[in-house]
Specification:
Chain A: This is Acid phosphatase. The complex is a heterodimer of chains A (about 525) and B (about 70). By secondary structure, chain A is an alpha/beta fold. Chain A has helices at about 1-20, 30-35, 40-45, 60-65, 75-80, 145-150, 180-185, 200-210, 310-315, 325-330, 360-365, 375-380, 405-420, 480-490, 495-505; strands at about 25, 50-55, 120-125, 170-175, 190, 195, 320-325, 365-370, 385-390, 430-435, 460-465, 470-475, 475-480, 495. Chain B has helices at about 5-10, 55-60; strands at about 15-20, 30-35, 35-40, 45-50. In chain B, strands 1-2-3-4 form a 4-stranded antiparallel β-sheet, with helices on one face. The chains are: A alpha/beta (about 525), B alpha+beta (about 70).
């Protein structure tokens, strides 16, 4: 046993050396803070971790009326009242440009029907208002890296409307009390101070879930991606407005000189395509059919940063990313509206360690099946690895524009019901959260962190036999809190991005970010 | 169709704009979207759609017939 341990430590040192500064071998501030003698024993009560990652809802949008939570009723007037680009309060909200409902929704809610809304949040399911059901697909909203920071406006959250492409829609809410997941949150733990790991959209936040890092595009200024480099003001967070941009949000959608995918120093912060299939970009003519055409300006070069998956493998912890409809799309191509697979929601498909042909790809990037059937089978059979990530297919992910709340919420609640009956349930921790806010307003200022985040507040529900019951957890957390738990439970080296975030949070005198354990009572049953 | 209008219509459907640039012949715009669709909008108003998600995007733009 002693010999075995020595070998593992040696192997860790070698790999960490190869990763360079991207890792601190268990010596980040987070690791130090939790290096108690009894830690491993307590956490060992959890031997199966499941992360379910839905799409694009702010906390206030869906859980803003949850009893005991910091909801919309507690929002200060200063954040409820939205301000125009010049800083002056709107007299009324701008209309939802091109209408509130997605194309094909009948009856539609037209742009004209959304005019003259008062300058405050409003409920889409208000019986005296729009009377929409959870099954209605709405117009999508900008959810991009720079716009999210401009909307947050230093924590005032008063420029969500000003820097949006969807007018009043950013201020929309749902009374979520009739959803199936609301009941799950009532039974277990709802975290009401949980923020998305990065500013902006799905692409970057999925990267934060697996890597706590921003992907990098080397020498982007000398290749086809060059026009994708954003033009930003000296503050580093404000997009440079185009001369023909409407001065007021009442007059239209803002325009920018270059609202690209890459920062001026070449980090990819908005959606780029995976370098491997399934990717939005086809293979190159005469190229390897398992790859995306690398000459396309939106194909991101393979990434080499270590991920949480690499660290789990390093410690011989079993793990998998279950992508809903993954194999179906590889075999038959994508289809819309079902399954409407989203290429940029598969973050590990951007990494060289999981390239086609790599053993790690076959072992860890698994098919979740259509409507999650393969993932549910693994649950029912008690064959989940120690750590699982599950990404629902597009029509079941709750993303505005192409998915509704009803289908995704019901699907996730069904998955939870299977998990509760799984042979692995007695020692399981499940986290259900959203990748980002989807451009939707939330009133709580994110903690001041590093250049990447945290961004806006999102819902997170912690489910486990060891979860507190009927509890609202106010502990500050973000997407990296999931990684913090996994890191601590399995005694992994700390990802560099977590170390940097901890240092930035501390430098701003913010409270340290939690690791989910505040939602648990870890005692033998 | 105006390039801003096309972008707004497709983005409203949850299909994110991933690239926007003048085309190689500098007579129009080339737009790429997260579902793999590429929309070419010439300055003379001609619109064509190609790539993986072309059919869906063509439908959103109300383009008749098959995408290019």
């Amino acid at each position: 046993m002693r010999t075995k341990s020595a070998v593992v430590i040696c192997a860790s040192s070698l790999v960490i050396g190869a990763f360079g500064p991207a890792l601190a071998a268990g010596n980040g501030p987070g690791a130090k803070a939790h290096a108690g003698k009894d830690t491993a024993a307590d956490l060992a009560l959890i031997d199966t971790v499941v992360v379910i990652y839905a799409e694009n809802r702010s906390f206030d949008n869906l859980y803003g009326s949850f009893p005991g939570a910091n909801g919309v009723a507690k929002a200060p007037a200063s954040t409820r009242l939205q301000r125009d680009r010049d800083g002056k309060p709107f007299h009324e909200l701008p209309p939802v440009w091109d209408g509130l409902t997605a194309k094909g929704v009948t009856p539609p809610v037209t742009q004209a029907e959304t005019e003259h809304l008062p300058n405050r949040p409003f409920y889409l399911d208000d019986p005296k208002g729009f009377k929409l059901s959870y099954g209605t697909i709405t117009h999508d909203l900008w959810h991009r890296f720079y716009q999210n920071q401009m909307q947050i406006n230093g924590g005032r959250n008063d420029k969500f409307v000003a820097h949006a492409d969807s007018g009043a829609l950013v201020m929309s809410l749902w009374d979520g009390s009739k959803t199936a997941m609301w009941k799950v949150a009532q039974k277990y733990v709802l975290a009401d101070n949980f923020f998305m790991g990065a500013f902006g959209g799905s692409f970057l936040n999925h990267q934060w879930l697996v890597c706590a890092c921003a992907p990098y595009y080397p020498k982007a200024d000398t290749n086809p991606a060059k026009p994708s480099i954003a033009v930003v003001e000296a503050d580093g967070v404000t997009l440079k407005e185009a001369p023909n941009s409407p001065k007021s949000a009442m007059d239209g959608i803002p325009k920018y000189v270059a609202d690209g995918n890459l920062t001026p120093d070449f980090y990819a912060v908005n959606t780029m395509q995976p370098p491997y299939q399934p990717s939005g970009n086809d293979p190159a003519k005469d190229g390897d059919k398992a790859y995306a055409d690398p000459t396309k300006p939106t194909t991101l070069p393979p990434q080499i940063e270590p991920t949480i998956g690499d660290l789990l493998s390093l410690k011989h912890i079993t793990w998998a990313w279950y992508g809903g409809a993954w194999q179906d799309v590889l075999d038959h191509g994508n289809r819309s509206p079902v399954p409407n697979f989203q290429y940029h929601h598969q973050p590990l498909n951007y990494y060289a360690n999981f390239a086609p042909g790599a053993a790690a790809r076959a072992e860890h990037l698994r098919d979740g099946g259509l409507a999650g059937s393969e993932f549910i089978k693994a649950i029912d059979d008690g064959k989940l690895p120690q750590v699982s990530f599950y990404k629902p297919q597009g029509d079941l992910n709750e993303h505005s524009g192409y998915a509704d709340i009803q289908a995704g919420d019901s699907h996730i609640a069904d998955v939870i019901a299977h998990l509760e009956k799984s042979p692995q349930w007695p020692h399981m921790l499940v986290v259900v959260t959203y990748d980002e806010n989807g451009g939707l307003w939330d009133h709580v200022a994110p903690p001041k962190g590093d250049r990447w985040g945290p961004g806006s507040r999102i819902p997170a529900i912690i489910v486990s036999p060891y979860a507190r019951r009927g509890y609202v957890d106010h502990t500050p957390m973000d997407t990296t809190s999931i990684l913090r738990f996994v890191t601590r439970r399995f005694e992994l080296p700390t990802l560099h991005g977590i170390t940097v975030r901890d240092a930035a949070i501390a430098a701003h005198d913010e409270k340290p970010l939690g690791d989910l354990t505040s939602a648990l009572v870890l005692k033998d049953k | 169709m105006d390039v801003d209008k096309a972008t707004a219509v497709i983005s409203a459907a949850g299909i994110e704009l991933t690239d926007r640039r003048r085309n190689g012949t500098d007579d129009g715009w080339s737009l790429s979207f997260s579902n793999g669709a590429v929309v070419e909008i010439r300055d003379n108003g001609e619109v064509s759609v190609s790539g993986k998600g072309a059919e869906v995007v063509a439908s959103h733009l109300g383009l008749p017939g098959k995408p290019a």
